[in-house]
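Dear support,

Our group has been running a series of protein-ligand predictions, and this particular one with magnesium ion is the one our PI (initials K.S.) wants archived with full inputs and outputs. We had some confusion internally about which version of the output was final, so please treat the block below as the authoritative record. The input we submitted was:
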Amino acid sequence: MKDLKPREIVKELDKYIIGQKDAKKSVAIALRNRWRRRQVEPDLQDEIAPKNIILIGPTGVGKTEIARRLANLTDSPFYKVEASKFTEVGYVGRDVESMIRDLVELTVNTLKARQQEAVQEKAARLAEERVLDILLPPTPRSNVPEDNKPIQISDHTAQNQDTGSGTREKLRTMLRAGKLDTRQIDLDVADRSSPMVEIFSNSGIEEMGINVKDMLGNLMPKSTKRRKVSVKEALKILTQEEAAHLVDMDRVKTDAVAMVEQSGIIFIDEIDKIAGKEKSQGPEVSKEGVQRDLLPIVEGSSVPTKYGIVKTDHILFIASGAFHVSKPSDLIPELQGRFPIRVELTSLGADEFVRILTEPKNALVLQYIALLRTEGVDISFTQDAVEKIAAIAVDVNASTENIGARRLHTLMEKLLEEILFAAPDVADPQIKIDAAFVEKQLMDIVKNEDLSRYIL
Ligand SMILES: Nc1ncnc2c1ncn2[C@@H]1O[C@H](COP(=O)(O)OP(=O)(O)OP(=O)(O)O)[C@@H](O)[C@H]1O
Ligand SMILES: [Mg+2]
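Confirmed final output from the archive:
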C-alpha cells in the first residue's frame, strides 16, 4: 500500500468503523509520522521517537477493530499481541521479546512471498524447461530407460531425426497449449515430513540468534521423494521450487529487519489486564513483572532474533484496553510515560448501532443477506426494523451487561435463527424483516431480564 495522508487513513477506517473520531485521528497521525520521520535528515531521524498510544474504551466499541483495519491499510510490519498472554503459566520474562521476533518472522514471510511473486514469470519459464527435460531427456536415445521413454509425437519424422530442438519446441507448444496437462510423469519432490526438527525449534534456543531448524536441516540429508504427478501439477510444484531458489533470502532478511526497525507497529491488546499491582496468586507471572519486561522493549532496546539484532527504538506501540477495573494510572509510572497519547473511545448508542448494522462494508445486515442468498432466500430489512434492533441492543446492554456492538451479533443471530434453520426450505423466498417481525422474534426474551441474560 502507499503512504496515506492522515485524512485518507481516517477515510479508509471510516469504511469499517463507525464513530470513534478521536481514536482514528490519533492512529492516523501516528502512522503518518512514521513516514514523515523517514523524510527527515538522518541525524534528526534518530532523535524522533514514536509517540505511543493507548486506546481506552469499554468492551466492544471498536478498539481491536481499528487495529485490525489499520494493519490492512499500511505497508508497515504490523503485529498484534494480547498482553495477558504474558502472564500465563509457562511464560518467562524474556518471552515478552517474542513479540519482536514474531514481528520479524512475519515480515520475512511477507517479503519472501512478495519476492516470489515478483519472480513468478521467470520461475515458470525455468519450470517449463525442467518439465521438458523430464518429458524429453536430453541424453542420447540409447541411455533412456524403458519406463521413462520420450513421449510419442505424432510427427514421427521429427522424433526420429534426433532429440534436437525441433522436437523440444513442438513439445513446448503442446505443453503451453495444455495438451500434456494430464500426462503423468515422475518428479523428485522435497520431502517435507521431518518432524524431528520441529521438536527442537520451540525450546527457546532462538534467543541466542541461532536458527536451529536451519542448522539441523543442513546436517540432515536432503530427502526427496519420487512421486507420480500430472504435468500440470509438476509445473506448479517446479514453479514454486524455482521461485524459492530465485529469492535472495539474505536480502529479504536484512530488508525485513530494517523495515521492522523503521516502520514496525506493535499493537498490544488488553493492556489493562497487566495493570494493577496486586501480587498474583499461584503460578501466574506477576502483572508488574510483565510490565517491567515490556519497558525496555517499548523504550528501545536490542532484541536478538534469528534474522539479526532488532533495535526497537522506533517501533510504534499502540496499546488498548477497557480499563474497567484498573486505570491507566495503575500501570507502573515508567510504562505510563512511554505511552504519551491517550485516546478514549466512546460507548456506542442507538444511532451508532443503526449505522454499524448497515453502513460498514462488512455490515452485519449485509453479511446475513449474502449468507441467505446462497440458499436462494432473499431477506431485506426495513429501516424501522434496523432501528428496532438497535434500540433493543441499547436496552439489553443497559439492563444486563454493556458489551457494545457485540450485542448486535447475538441479537441478529437470534432474530434470524428460524430463517437460518429453515433455509432453503421456506414457503416464500422473499422475506421482509420489519419492526413487527423483530418485535415478535425478540420481545419476549428482551422483556424477561433473566432470559436475556442467557440468550442475548
Ligand atoms: N465503532 C464500530 N464500528 C463498527 N463496528 C464496530 C464498532 N465497534 C465495534 N464494532 C463491532 O463489534 C465487534 C467487537 O469490536 P472490537 O473487537 O473492536 O471490540 P473491542 O473494543 O476491542 O472490545 P474489547 O475491549 O472487549 O476487546 C467487532 O466485530 C466490530 O465489528
Ligand atoms: Mg479487543
